[in-house]
Fold:
Amino acid sequence: MPAEIMIDKSPEPYDSVISRAESLISLHNSDIEVATTTEYGAFSAINKISHRRFILYSPEFFNDVSENRQNDLSVLSICLHELGHLMYNHPLRRTSTAQIFEKEADRFSGYYMCLAGATLDQSLAAIKKFGNENETETHPDKAVRAKEIEAGYIDARINIFKDTTYKKQRDSITVLVQQTLAMNKIKKSMFKKDSSKRNLAAGAGEKTKEPTLALLDQFVLLGETIYVDAQNNVRSNKEKEPIGKFLPATTPGNGRIMIEDVSYTLENGQIYSGAPKVAKLSVGHQIN
Ligand SMILES: [Zn+2]
Structure:
C-alpha cells in the first residue's frame, strides 16, 4: 500500500488506458476512482468503511512501463491486474492468501489482454520486465506469475475465440501444474506428519480434542493444492488454520469453495472464479 495518496483530479495521460481497461470488463460509468501516488508502482485499494474503490499509480512507473508511451499495452495489462483485485474484492482480505489473489489477478489480466487483441508476448511484457525474480510474502516470483497470465490468455483463446491451436500450450501448462503437484505431494506428507505430531501431544494428558484431519477432497486452485477436511474446512500446506470453507452440492464435483469470503464455483470438477459483471475464469480443478 502506498504511504501517501495524492488525489489529483486533473486528467492524467494514463486515464484513457484505465478507461479502456474498464470498458474491456464492461465497467462503464464505473465508480472506481483513479488517483496518482508518489509511491513507485500501481496499486488497488478499497476503503473498508466507505467501500470507495481506488486504482493508484505513480506516473513515473507507468512512464517506465510504457517506455515513453510507445507501448500502452503493458500499462493496460497492469491496469487489468489491479482491476482484477478490485473485482474480486481482494484488498479487503487477509494477507495470508495474498499469493493466491495475486495469481487470480494475473490470470484475469491475461484473459482480458487476449480480449483486447494483444498478443501473448504483449500480455507478458510488463511482468517480465517488472516482476520480482524471487517470491515474496505477498507476490509469487515472476515465472509463476507469467504462467498465470498465460493460463488466462489461453483460457480466452480457447473458450472465447474457439482457437484450438492453443490446446497444446494449455497442456504444457498442465504438465507444469503436475510438477507442482508432485512437489506438493511431498509437502502434503509433511502436513500429515505435522497433524499426527499434534495428535500425539494432545494424547499426552491433554483433553483438547484435535479436529480430525482426514482429507476428503483435493483441488488445485491457482497452482496451490488445497484440501477439504471432514468438517468441510479448506486447508492449505502453508497455513495451520483453515483458509476457507467448502460448501458441497448434492452432486459430487459441484459446490462452492469460499476463501476469505471470495467464492469459487466448482462445476463438474472444474473451479471457476467469478464476480458480478466479469467473465467466468477457469482457475483450477478437483484432483481426486
Ligand atoms: Zn497484485
